[in-house]
Request: fold
Amino acid sequence: MNELLKKEIDLLPENPGCYQMRDVDDKIIYVGKAKNLKKRVSQYFLRSQNGKTARMVMNVHHFTTIITKTEKEALILEMNLIQKHHPQFNILLMDDKHYPYIALHKNIEHPYVSISRNIKDKRCEFFGPFPNSGACYKTLDIINKTFPLRKCRTLKKKSCLYYHMGQCLGPCINHIERKTYDEICNKISDFLKGDNKEIIKILSQKMDEASSKLEFEKALEYKNIIQSILQTSENQVMEFKDKINCDVFSFSTRDFYISISALIVRNGVLTLKKSFVYEIIGEINDFISNIILQYYDSNTLPKQLIVPNDEILNILNGIFTECVVSSPTKGKFFELLNIAKINSLENLNEHFQTARLEDDNLEVLENLGKMLNIKTPYRIELYDNSHLMGSNAVGAMVCFINGEPVKKMYRRYNLDTINTQDDLMSMNYVLTKRFKRLKEENLNYPDLIILDGGMKQLNVAIDVFHNLNLNINAIGLVKNNKHQTEGIVDKTGKIYNIKDNKKLFFLLARMQDEVHRFAISFHKSKRLKNMYSSIFDEVEGIGDGRVKIILEHYPTIEALKMAPVEELEQILPKKIAKDLFNKFHE
Reply:
């Protein structure tokens, strides 16, 4: 421990707050919170540490603190600082999978139902999550065929096919009373909460009506829907009769690792299990509390939250004001805690047995840093360009932290204003735009950038960084005559063979695949949009407004080509619909 650290520890207050561990370059490498700053921070340096904590402590040059009034304020501040600075030793739920929800848009003029992965719209009531997206879309289809809410996102000036099929009330041509909408929304809500009696009654009536009109195909369709609902109900294991909504968290530890498991219970049904395995840094209860807080930054909060002990309860209680947080010692919730505990232990054992790639990433990155004689590159950015003979050219950047992709930090660049057949000019444009902005806005730089084009693109990066007066570590990927990656080259031109270094080779391969995928998908999207535009430009009467309507109904060219002219006439005037149809079938 250096003299600066000793002085800073002596001056620490005994208040609650957040501490920021910083390296020799004053970069934040870890953020934590404490009930007592002096006691908590000093423990890092006065006790022997192991694993990831030991590596973090070795990199600490000094630290700073922010005092808060309460421990709860410190926890919220800790999460905000982590999300802002992305410290390399903090755990981030950077790409937690968003399972689909069914959104009932009921607090608007004309309600409708949709699939949503964003659950923050206060105008909606959300149901889920659905671990099986196929089941989610199937449920939405049942609702749309049974309840006559509007299907169009934007109302047209004339009725559509759904209205004539009896699946829409036709708010485009009729005045619908709010009372009618509320009754339909309540029935949909009841169905999604597990009460299927009303929907089966409605479907049975429609089946009988179709049968009496000798519309046997339609009657069979309603019969199949009823059977599907009954089958789904039979397959659900009802854990509780009182239709509870709760999330249950528990954990297990082994050596320096922790497994946190979450059981998601909706309407009395255990719908989902999630598990996370991490290397522990800091105090366990603080660690778990922070993970739970981050989890609900992007997931819906239930009415009840069950946590494994009173200390976590005391930390979270009062932060989540919209739900009841408890730590039971008996009863049905205690049984759920035990189930979550068993799952966390099983997941931890599986993690050790399979030696997952996540555990190796830090070691691989440390070895890469030693190979290049640079600091461990915890944050890496990769760049790539994509075009078709110079047309629809784009640039792309992907970001990896601790060897894992952080998709919210990806960036896309349009390259319409330059010579897009010149890849080096395109790379110069992208790198200049990216790092000029980072410099002007005083944002964090990556520890390393990787370029696909070997020494040629690397020389472009060297020129860009020289012009911007920046010192950024960069390497290029070296390809053989079969365009296979077999090495990396640094700024001096030194080539490192990585074919025999399997861990590094496969990590760089995954990163390379990701930047290619991201660049190509953006290029294809842009090319498709421009292809659409060129076709629409040749049909008189199709402007921006009608283009938007067409794309809403036909997101691909294949779908639009297959549409009969009668179908197109539902969204376009007859002449324009016919002209568009003829254009596609010339």
Observations:
- The longest helix spans residues 502-537.
- The two ends are 78 Å apart (CA to CA).
- Residues 553 and 571 are 9 Å apart (CA to CA).
- Residues 101-235 form one domain.
